[in-house]
Amino acid sequence: MENYFILLELPFDLPESDTNKISEAISKKQAQWSRDQSNPVKKAKASEYLAALEDIKKVMLDPTARKQEAAKAKQIKASKAKELEAKLSLYRAKGDELSEKDLKRLVLPLTKSRKSLEAETKSKIKSTPPKFLIKLKLEMSKTSCNSWT
Predict the structure, then answer these.
(1) pLDDT tens-digit map of 75-109
(2) pLDDT averaged over consecutive 10-residue blocks of the chain (149 residues)?
């Protein structure tokens, strides 16, 4: 099962602690997953998430368990950032420019918020790889990365 902070798209660097906001995020996702059950492509995952709903509530509404879940989310973020750094270093070594196609191939598997990431980085695509890497790292550090999976 995925990390609950990431799944609910809640901030975890400074973990969300407002139980009202957490409950609201759970309700929104529950509604989304219920709708997704009618989609043949999304049905299996939606059913899996709905089946885990009680555990999601249990973990996310308990301060101690929530803190542990946030720590796991941070580890996932660090792992994904390291993976991205390794892939980008190949582009730097070759001296290639990072095309839009390359960007999608590298970044999209690491995030669920594809549209927002594409919009934020679209202007950076034509940069040389080292400049792109610096800008991407800055953007990653500014966000909560609540969509890294």
Answers:
(1) 998 888 888 888 778 777 777 676 777 777 777 66
(2) 92 92 96 96 95 97 96 91 82 72 70 45 47 62 51
Instruction: Tell me how crowded residue 48 is: count the other CB atoms within 10 A of its CB.
Output: 12
Rounded-to-integer distance, Cα 121 and Cα 115, Å: 10
User: What is the DSSP annotation of 105-144?
Assistant: HHHGGGBS-HHHHHHHHGGGTTS-HHHHHHHHHHHHHHS-
Does residue 12 contact residue 144 with C-beta atoms inside 8 Å?
Answer: yes
HEC per residue, 35-85: HHCCCCCCHHHHHHHHHCHHHHHHHHCCHHHHHHHHHHHHHHHHHHHHHHH
What's residue 46's pLDDT?
95
Q: Which pLDDT score, from 0 to 100, does residue 80 have?
A: 86
Q: How many CB atoms lie within 10 A of CB 5?
A: 30
- Closest by CA to 29, choosing from 12, 64, 59, 4, is 4
**What is the C-alpha to C-alpha distance for residues 126 and 101, in angstroms, rounded to an integer?**
11
